[in-house]
Amino acid sequence: MPVPDDAVDLDSYRDVCHLFAALSSPARAATIHLLSQGEKTVGELHELLGISQPLLSQHLRSLREARLVIGRREGRSIHYRLADEHVAHVFLDALTHSRHEEGTGAFRGGDRGGEGLREPMRAVKTRQDGGG
User: Fold this and answer.
1) Residue 107 carries which DSSP code?
2) What is the mean pLDDT of residues 55-70?
3) Are 91 and 110 in contact (CB under 8 A)?
4) Domains of the chain by range and CATH?
5) I need a labelling partner for 79 at 20 to 30 A (CA). Which of 69, 70, 73, 114 fits?
6) What is the mean pLDDT of the chain?
């Protein structure tokens, strides 16, 4: 069957699908959220996320390969930051959307429409402490 001239080029969506696939892990999503507050060392991310350093390294590799984060070495430390401001906007918009109760106008978990999402995270729950 011939493809119409105005058919959607599905291949043109591969990069954006790769971006969302990279965010499909709660640990990677939390990492992006933490980095939306500013640059962090691997040690800081390890402490805040409460996951093993080898697992964190795997997640950071996935985020680097998706071009969502950039690392730089300073002495013995590696510092990570978001690749650009678009990453924060896309993530924070998706987070706000995911917390919105459909049809009610209310937000889950006491969140007020994304207020506070740009504030520093106080704690990130992990599987190790029962958070998911």
Assistant:
1) B
2) 96
3) no
4) 14-126 (1.10.10.10)
5) 114
6) 83
